[in-house]
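Need residues for this backbone.
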């Protein structure tokens, strides 16, 4: 195999290649996003079966950095980076479990949940951040003017950036919408030593500020308009297929906000098909919160245009985004994957998560959005009993304790809790306790 490399090109097809070590986020000709392009011809010199064997052999190995779910596919992700500049916390290889009991209740026998929140900082954002921060480390080692990394965040991006920045010893600046992220998400970058700027605005407002700040080449922009993160995140679809012994599922359902993750999911699966590891594609379902649904509205109009909205406050705070940056890439993916866009109300989100929890999960609100979409597609008969369905759980439920607390108190606006399970408070009286247990066991019998 020849020397592998990747580079930036304009997603809209303007001519020109840019080094991944250049400080550049947009096409200098048209202002569109850049994407990382790989040398597919050289990658294709390796037969599909050899790739499968190589990737399987690396799982959980301690051969740095290949034990990571992202770096185990280094040749496809970011081949030219020096191994000593990789900043990894062995992200990826997340749990994919058979949601047998929930599936049984729905009449879907082959339902699986990909637990991307079981990761270093508790969300899938780690998959992308390991790549971005590694590239920055390599740039800095080569004498680049970059001195710090920065992002605007709905909570999980900043947690991931702060952790990987701290692991690399790179100063990190995060912009958060004040009072709109969970306590866990706020404390993560604080603990990791980032400069945390809580602004009196929403995510889109933070994004505008960070774009200005990063005009100066000394601060590197880590938002998902930076395509390096897509390269790491694209391993999620590859990993799902790998976990099924290289078989393609029928459906993958994913909650979406800025539309980077669904673009990444599509990109990884397309690369697998190009290199002959799979011969068909799953159908994709992108799920939005109804209170922040510009992609859903655009899909209703056949993706003619994106009309940005002012995103309303939603339980699914990580996807409270009104002007998604990766819109164009995501439209291409939906078209290639015969995709469907769904939406979920606050009531549907909270009750879907609670229903799943009763079968042993601990779903974050975004996973609730994806589960709501699943329930709707099953009801409409689009998803059938024998279909293999994967729901992508994007974050760990433990990051959203207040959401669960409020739900079980039935104290969420616009939500009628259908599965509340408040604790029973009572004096330490054995007869009272016996009575309550007996009634409980009768009621669940
Ligand atoms: C970032 C995030 C999303 C949305 O991903 P996009 O790339 O913005 O579409 C969904 N769920 C969680 C928990 C997230 O942190
Ligand atoms: Zn361009």
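Answer:
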């Amino acid at each position: 195999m020849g020397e592998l490399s990747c580079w930036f090109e304009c997603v809209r097809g303007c001519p020109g290649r840019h080094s991944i070590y250049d400080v550049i986020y947009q096409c200098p000709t048209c202002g569109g996003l850049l994407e990382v392009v790989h040398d597919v011809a050289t990658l294709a010199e390796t037969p599909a079966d050899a790739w499968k064997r190589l990737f399987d052999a690396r799982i959980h190995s301690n051969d740095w950095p290949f034990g990571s779910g992202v770096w185990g596919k280094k040749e496809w992700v970011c081949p030219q980076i020096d191994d000593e500049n990789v900043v990894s916390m062995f992200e990826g290889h997340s749990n994919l479990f058979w949601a047998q009991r929930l599936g049984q209740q729905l009449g879907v026998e082959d339902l699986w949940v990909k637990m991307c929140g079981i990761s270093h900082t508790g969300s899938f954002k780690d998959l992308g951040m390991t790549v971005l921060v590694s590239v920055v480390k390599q740039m800095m080692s080569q004498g680049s003017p970059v001195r710090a990394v920065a992002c605007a965040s709905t909570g999980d991006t900043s947690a991931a950036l702060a952790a990987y920045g701290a692991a690399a010893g790179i100063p990190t600046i995060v912009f958060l919408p004040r009072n709109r992220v969970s306590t866990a998400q706020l404390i993560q970058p604080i603990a990791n030593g980032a400069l945390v700027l809580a602004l009196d605005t929403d995510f889109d407002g933070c994004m505008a500020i960070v774009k200005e700040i990063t005009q100066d080449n000394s601060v590197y922009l880590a938002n998902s308009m930076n395509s390096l993160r897509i390269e790491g995140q694209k391993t999620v679809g590859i990993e799902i297929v790998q976990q099924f012994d290289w078989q393609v599922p029928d459906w993958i359902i994913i909650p979406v906000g800025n539309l980077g993750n669904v673009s990444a999911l599509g990109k990884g699966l397309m690369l697998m098909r190009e290199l002959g590891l799979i011969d068909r594609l799953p159908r994709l379902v992108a799920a939005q919160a109804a209170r922040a649904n510009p992609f859903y509205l655009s899909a209703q109009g056949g993706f003619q245009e994106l009309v940005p909205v002012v995103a309303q406050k939603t339980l699914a705070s990580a996807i409270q985004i009104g002007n998604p940056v990766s819109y164009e890439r995501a439209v291409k993916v939906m078209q290639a994957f015969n995709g469907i866009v769904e939406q979920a109300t606050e009531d549907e989100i909270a009750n879907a998560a609670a229903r799943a929890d009763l079968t042993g999960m601990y779903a974050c609100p975004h996973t609730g959005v994806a589960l709501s979409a699943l329930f709707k597609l099953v009801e409409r008969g689009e998803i059938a009993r024998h279909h293999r369905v994967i729901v992508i759980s994007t974050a760990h439920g433990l990051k959203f304790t207040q959401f669960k607390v409020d739900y079980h108190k039935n104290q969420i606006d616009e939500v009628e809790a259908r599965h509340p399970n408040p604790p029973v408070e009572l004096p330490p009286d054995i007869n009272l306790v016996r009575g309550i247990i007996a009634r409980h066991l009768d009621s669940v019998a």
